[in-house]
Amino acid sequence: MSTTAMPITEIAPQRSWYKRNEIAVTPWLFLAPGVLFFLFYVIFPIFQSFNLSLYRWDGLGEAQFVGLANYQELSTDRAFETSLWNNLKWLILYLLAIPAGLFIALFLNQTVTGIRLYKSLFFFPFVISQIVVGLVFTWFYDPTFGLLNVMLGWVGLGPINVLGDPTLVTYGIIAAGLWPQTAYCMILYLTGLNAVDPEQIEAGRLDGAKGWKMLWYIIIPQLKPATFIAFVVTIIGALRSFDLISIMTNGGPFGSSRVLSFYMFEKALSEYGFRMGYGAAIAVVLFLIMLFFIAYFLWSMFQEERAR
Amino acid sequence: MRSMLKASIAALATTAVMAGAALAGSHGAKLSGDLVIFSDMSNPAPRAVMEGMVERFGEMHPDLNIELTVIDREAYKTQIRNFLSANPPDVANWYAANRMKPYVNAGLFDDISDMWTGKIGEELASTKGAMTIDGKQWGVPYTYYQWGVYYRKDIYDELGLSEPATFDEMKANCQAIIDSGRKCYTLGSRNYWTTGGWFDYLNMRTNGYDFHAALTGGEIPWTDDRVRATFANWRELIDMGAFVDNHQSYSWQESLPFIVNGDAAEILLGNFAVAPLRDGGLDDSKLDFYQFPAINPDVELAEDAPTDTFHIPSGAKNKEAARAFLEFVVSADNQTLINNGSNLGQLPVNANSGVDDDKFLKEGFAMLSSNSPGGVAQFFDRDAPAEMAAVAMEGFQEFMVFPDNLDDILGRLEQARGRIY
Q1: Where are the domains of chain A?
Q2: Most buried residue among A269, A282, B131, B372 by CB atoms closer than 10 A?
Q3: CATH says B147-304+385-420 is which class?
Q4: What is the pLDDT of residue B75?
Q5: Helix, strand, or coil (residue A30)
Q6: Which residues in A lie closer than 8 A to residue B387 (C-beta atoms)?
Q7: What pLDDT, on the 0 to 100 scale, is given for residue A135?
Q8: Tens digits of per-residue pLDDT, A10-54?
Q9: What does the pLDDT average to over B26-50?
Q10: Contact partners, residue B168, CB within 8 Å, separation at least 6
Q11: Long-range pairs for A139-142 at CB < 8 Å and ≥24 separation?
């Protein structure tokens, strides 16, 4: 018995370690570049930010450990409070892009001559750069020659300076942001609508469903994947609402349109910003907010996987 | 391969010898290699000046390969931090006084005090103070300019007004302008610093240069009654409706059409306003200048005159060529040329240079050299530390839109002062 076992043990070491573990190792080899970059450029900086937020550092000289002093200051900083509220406004109001996109998609989901042209016109704002969107809306809102005030004049309303009024300015910028975001959601729903099962609609119709009932009970449930993606991209879009603010108001008037990402930039990296530690503390808060959503997204994706 | 290597070693050796010769002080020494210049002179006129300087310097040193990168002036202010530490050029633009302090403290600018000991030190004596931190000089100036009120002479003539010498006359003029259906002062406070100019002048005229310097230096609380007096004067103008509406929505450039179109009669700005206003069609018969009038007769007049500069980053690779370039920039002839009315249209820093025969330059030069006994300040955001300047100028804008928030604003500034200094 022992003699017959011998050759096997002798042959086995001849196969290399890689050959023996090929199935298990290969996927990791393919993943390695991505994982490494992700670790280096995403995960590592997160911890670096956490660490940096405990220091006072001007970005040039020596960093000085201050413990939680930056967070303490955040809790009394009114500009931070304003930014936090503005972030909340963005998060809530930006979600309007989802129903708006859905209705435009339903409206455009028909076959008439030239529908492709109409679809592309509605999709157009998503194609142009956010910077251009910001500029266009800045001119639209302009208090002296802007189209908005001309239009308000037609119905007898006085001129308003949307971007110069601290109470209106954030809503003005969100409205500008909704324009391309709605187009994005619309495209997602248009593709979703292609996948709606005509037999189910037929069956629903036989059972007497129409109008809102048809939409709510037959169409929308089938659009669930599209809704999920639209929700994810809209939340992410709301949290990175940096370029529009930068181009339209630069955070003004007197800082009333800032959001957390912009405030972080201003404190740490802008012309007068030399407070890397404080900026990092703001970034950490923003990260925690994002983490909440990321956790939710991961959880719901996980649920979906399990349901299958 | 070997011969190439030999050749390059030989070339390097010659460069080293030449470098030695140049260090020995022979003028017109041959410079070679690369000279990398990062510049923020991105507006049309300054850009042409910068390119012209590079071209003329290049002709003097044909072996030198000069690479000029012009970066947008506003973007430059944030990029300088990255490139000074990561990818330093040989020469870089920046600003004098407190504005260069973070970079000096971090050791990113080269100490060039030895350049200032000889002829340059005498010729540039007037700006030496602005270039000095810790008793050393960290760069050279290339231009400075006056601030003041630029006004529409034709509107003044139409209304029978004359240049004001006191704050009361200034307000009376303004009232007449308002009564004629115009605004007195245009302003683009979307650039917060434009409000800094108004604060500088109102405060220097109300409380004097020394008080202003102490305030920007953090020695005086913002809730001080003397600071409130400044804001009270400011408020008089705001309550009159002296400033254009919605100024918080405009950048300084966007505020210029108001004065060009005659909707506003005046603007408080640096001399860099003249070029775009002339481009807008205001010739010297329509545009004129006056010094900001006295408010408190007991304080001496003081002016803002920001100085723009060149520096050698400590990480520069071709410091020899960089020093030669700096010497070239501040030389009397070059100063006369680049600051004349058809180029920068500003004031030369070299005492041996001529001031161009330009109405505004002559007036500004006379004002700064003989009618500014109180002192010369750089500018609010160059005298105060960056962070204080940011918080304060934001507060100034809020004050100009909602004057009633003053107590709240001053409280906030005072809180910031406690933290920053």
Answers
A1: 76-307
A2: A282
A3: alpha beta
A4: 86
A5: helix
A6: 272-275
A7: 92
A8: 555 578 888 888 888 999 999 999 999 999 999 999 999 999 999
A9: 83
A10: none
A11: A141/A172, A142/B249
**Gap from B412 CA to chain A (nearest CA, Å):** 9
Distance CA B39, CA B310 (A): 9
| Matching residue, tokens 């991961």 | A298
As a whole number of angstroms, the distance between CA B114 and CA B118 comes to 8
Q: Which of B77, B105, B398 sits opposite A254 (nearest CB)?
A: B398
Contact A186, A101 (CB under 8 A): yes
Top pLDDT among B129 and A288 is at A288
- pLDDT tops 80 at residue B364: yes
Mean pLDDT in residue range B77-92: 90
How sure is the predictor about B29, in pLDDT bands with cuts at 50, 70 and 90?
A: low
Taking contacts as CB-CB distances below 8 angstroms, the residues of chain B near A73 are 419
Indicate if B147-304+385-420 has the same CATH topology as B27-144+307-363: yes
Q: What is the pLDDT, as a whole number, of residue B64?
A: 92
Q: What pLDDT sits at residue B223? A: 93
Residues in chain A, how many? Answer: 308
DSSP 8-state symbol, B313: B
* Domain range list for chain B: 27-144+307-363, 147-304+385-420
The pair of three-digit structure tokens given for residue A57, joined into one six-digit string: 């550092």
Contact present, A189 and A179 (Cβ < 8 Å) = no
CATH architecture of A76-307: Orthogonal Bundle (1.10)
Report angle CA B6, B10, B13 to the nearest 5 degrees. Answer: 140
Q: Cβ(B187)–Cβ(B257) under 8 Å?
A: no
CA B358/CA B193 separation, integer angstroms: 27
CA-CA distance, B151 to B159, in Å (whole number)? 13
CB pair distance less than 8 Å for A254 and B394: yes
- DSSP state string for A172-191: HHHHHHHHHHHHHHHHHHHH
Beta bridge partners of B37: B68, B91
Q: pLDDT digit string (tens) for A194-218?
A: 888 888 888 888 888 888 888 888 8
Helical H segments across A195-271, by residue range: 198-206, 211-214, 220-222, 224-239, 243-248, 260-268
What is the per-residue pLDDT for A13? 59
- Interface check B199 vs A, CB under 8 A: no
pLDDT tens-digit series, residues B289-343: 999 999 999 998 999 989 899 999 999 999 999 999 999 999 999 998 898 878 8
Name the percent of chain A lying above pLDDT 90: 44
Q: How far apart are CA B382 and CA A272, in angstroms?
A: 10
Helices A169-194 + A97-108 axis angle, to 10: 40
Residue B364's nearest CA partner among B312, B405, B323, B305 is B305
Q: What is the pLDDT of residue A172?
A: 94
Closest to B217 measured CA to CA, from B380, B394, B383, B105: B383
Mutate to test the interface with B, among A60, A70, A81, A165 (most CBs of B within 10 A): A60
* Rounded distance between C-alpha atoms, residue A206 and residue A270, angstroms: 63
Measure in Å the smallest separation between the Cα of A254 and chain B Cα atoms: 5
**Strands (DSSP E) found in B127-182:** 132-133, 136-137, 140-144, 147-152
User: What pLDDT does residue A19 have?
Assistant: 86
Give chain A's contact residues with B (Cβ, < 8 Å): 58-61, 73, 78, 142-144, 161, 163-164, 249-250, 252-255, 266, 269-275
Res A4 pLDDT > 60: no
Distance of CA B213 to the CA centre of its chain: 17
Task: Classify domain B27-144+307-363 at the CATH topology level.
Answer: D-Maltodextrin-Binding Protein; domain 2 (3.40.190)
**Tens digits of residue pLDDT in B220-245:** 999 999 999 999 999 999 999 999 99
CA distance B98 to B383: 5
